[in-house]
């Protein structure tokens, strides 16, 4: 496949576009640019702004979107945008438009990242014949599986962010009871995401009988990183602990003993703080099934273009049964 391709990674808050090329089995990207979704009424407007800025009109595109890809019109889980596939294809004069879940693209990109694209969180031999799970928090919580198939890999998008999450301590039980006041079903994304940080902070404030001092995930996170507010520190610690529980549960539920790959927009920004938390202890806290997860490696994606590369590889593999 020759010629440049348009690739995009569209989350609940930001959309990133780039031009991709595929040569000798490798994807390269250039002209990577980011846009805030709130600044554009539609996804098509954002894509046109990018194409006008770079002065080219690719004929093939792959958009990775934060939501389930089921019908011709894709609804974003945490954004007012929609993606009308046929309309977008026509508006951008595309011959080919592939639309995949954002963590599908992230998983496809992770398959091809060099080692410098990762940071080891926890070493382990794992089981190379077993699936790997790619998951993590951003505006929402994404999850995908990478399954070995006949010397290649099949990526399976999931909605793991909407799986229920189980408390492991008295504090977590109390926090979840507070979260349940707003909606009885407490699932991963309500606690382990950007909005989840605010939910946790408000719950801890309510339990202490105080009014919250912060109302945005950035404010809570910055106060935690600076160590200037004890409740903000505890909030982000709890966020990381619940991520550990969710990651361990994903290994159990998906048989993902091949490894856990952490992604999303939040963790790279809090890397040093994250490494000091009880993430690993909570990941391993599986009672009778601790041995099942004990040798599973955990890595963090630190290349912020991984999903864009993945979108390029999805286009390159179009029509193939699996990704190499």
TrEMBL record:
<dbReference type="InterPro" id="IPR043129">
    <property type="entry name" value="ATPase_NBD"/>
</dbReference>
<keyword id="KW-0547">Nucleotide-binding</keyword>
<dbReference type="GO" id="GO:0006096">
    <property type="term" value="P:glycolytic process"/>
</dbReference>
<dbReference type="GO" id="GO:0005536">
    <property type="term" value="F:D-glucose binding"/>
</dbReference>
<protein>
    <recommendedName>
        <fullName>Glucokinase</fullName>
        <ecNumber>2.7.1.2</ecNumber>
    </recommendedName>
</protein>
<dbReference type="InterPro" id="IPR050201">
    <property type="entry name" value="Bacterial_glucokinase"/>
</dbReference>
<keyword id="KW-0067">ATP-binding</keyword>
<dbReference type="Pfam" id="PF02685">
    <property type="entry name" value="Glucokinase"/>
</dbReference>
<dbReference type="GO" id="GO:0005524">
    <property type="term" value="F:ATP binding"/>
</dbReference>
<keyword id="KW-0418">Kinase</keyword>
<keyword id="KW-0808">Transferase</keyword>
<keyword id="KW-0963">Cytoplasm</keyword>
<comment type="similarity">
    <text>Belongs to the bacterial glucokinase family.</text>
</comment>
<keyword id="KW-0324">Glycolysis</keyword>
<dbReference type="InterPro" id="IPR003836">
    <property type="entry name" value="Glucokinase"/>
</dbReference>
<dbReference type="GO" id="GO:0005829">
    <property type="term" value="C:cytosol"/>
</dbReference>
<dbReference type="GO" id="GO:0004340">
    <property type="term" value="F:glucokinase activity"/>
</dbReference>
């Amino acid at each position: 496949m020759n010629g440049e391709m348009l690739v995009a990674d569209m989350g609940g808050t930001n959309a990133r576009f780039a031009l991709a090329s595929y040569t000798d089995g490798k994807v390269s990207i250039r002209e990577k640019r980011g846009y805030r979704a709130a600044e554009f009424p539609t996804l098509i407007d954002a894509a046109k702004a990018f194409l006008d800025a770079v002065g080219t009109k690719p004929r093939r595109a792959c958009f990775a979107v934060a939501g389930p890809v089921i019908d011709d019109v894709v609804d974003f889980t945490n954004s007012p945008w929609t993606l009308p596939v046929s309309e977008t294809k026509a508006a951008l004069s595309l011959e080919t438009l592939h639309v995949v879940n954002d963590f599908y693209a992230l998983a496809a990109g992770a398959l091809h990242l060099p080692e410098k694209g990762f940071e080891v969180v926890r070493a382990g031999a794992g089981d190379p014949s077993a699936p790997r799970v790619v998951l993590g928090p951003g505006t929402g919580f994404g999850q995908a599986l990478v399954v070995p198939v006949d010397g290649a890999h099949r990526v399976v998008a999931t909605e793991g962010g909407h799986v229920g999450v189980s408390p492991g301590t008295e504090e977590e039980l109390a926090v979840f009871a507070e979260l349940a006041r707003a909606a009885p079903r407490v699932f991963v994304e309500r606690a382990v995401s950007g909005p989840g940080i605010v939910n946790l902070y408000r719950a801890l404030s309510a339990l202490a009988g105080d009014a919250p001092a912060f109302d945005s995930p950035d404010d809570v996170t910055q106060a935690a990183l600076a160590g200037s507010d004890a409740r903000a520190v505890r909030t982000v610690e709890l966020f990381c602990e619940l991520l550990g529980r969710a990651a361990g549960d994903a290994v159990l539920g998906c048989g993902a003993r091949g490894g856990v790959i952490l992604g999303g927009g939040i963790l790279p920004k809090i890397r040093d703080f994250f490494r000091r938390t009880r993430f690993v202890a909570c990941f391993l806290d599986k009672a009778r099934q601790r041995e099942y997860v004990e040798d599973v490696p955990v890595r963090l994606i630190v290349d912020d273009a991984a999903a864009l590369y993945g979108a390029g590889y999805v286009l390159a593999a179009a029509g193939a049964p699996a990704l190499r």
